[in-house]
Amino acid sequence: MVIIDMRLLRLSLFNIKKSKREALAIVFLTLITTFMFSVFLANGSRIDHAFDESIKASGSVNRLLLIGEEKYHDEFKKILEEEYHPERLSENRYIYCAMTDVLDNRGEPISHNLLFVTNKTERQLEDFVKTEAMTEEEILQVEHPIWLPDTFRISKGYVVGDSFTVLKATASYPFTVVGFYESGLQSSDAYGFKCVISDEDFDLFSMIFDSGNAHSYTGLGFDGAADFSLDDFIDRCEASSSENIRSDFFDLSFENEKANETVFLSLYLMMTVFLSLVTFVASLFMIRHKISNDIEDQMQQIGVLEALGYRSREISLAYLYEYILSGGLGAILGGILALAITPALDQGIMIMLGRTMHDAPEWISIILVIVIITVLVTLFALLKAHTVKKYPPVVAFRRGINAHHFGKNPMPLTKMKGSVNCWLALKGFLSDIRSGIGVAVCIITAGTTVLFALMMFVFFKDGTKSLEYMMGADVNIIMVNLMSDVDPVAIKDEIAALPEVEKAMVTYDMEFVSVKDAGEPGQIMVYEDFGLSDTLRPCYGKVPEHDNEVMIGFSRAQKQNLSLGDQITLTSNGLEKSYIITGIISSMMNSGTVLYMTPDGYKRIRADGRAHTIYVYPAEGVSLDDLETAVSSHFGMSAKESMEGGAAGDSVEDKIRAAAQEKIAVLLSQYGVTDVDYAIRIGDQMISGNSRDFVIKEINSYQGIIKSQMAPIAEVTKKYTLIAAILISLVIGVILAILSSSNVRRLRHSLGIMKSLGYSSRDLMTQMALKFLPVTLFSVLLASICVVLLNSFFWRAIFGVIANANPFVILMGDVGLILFCYAVTYFSAGRIKKISVTELMTE
Amino acid sequence: MVSSILKTEKLCKSFSNGGLQQHVIKNLDLEIREGDFTVIMGSSGSGKSTLLYALSGMDKPSMGKVLFNGTEIQNYSNDELAVFRRGNCGFVFQSVYLLDNQNVLDNVLTGALIVQKNSPELVEKAKDLLRKVGLGEEDLKKYPSQLSGGEAQRVGIVRAIINDPKILFADEPTGQLNSSAGRDVLDIFTGLHQKGQSIVMVTHDLKTALRGTRVLYLRDGGIVGDFSMPVYGENDLKERRNKLTAFLEEMGW
Question: Total domain count for chain B?
Answer without folding.
Answer: 1
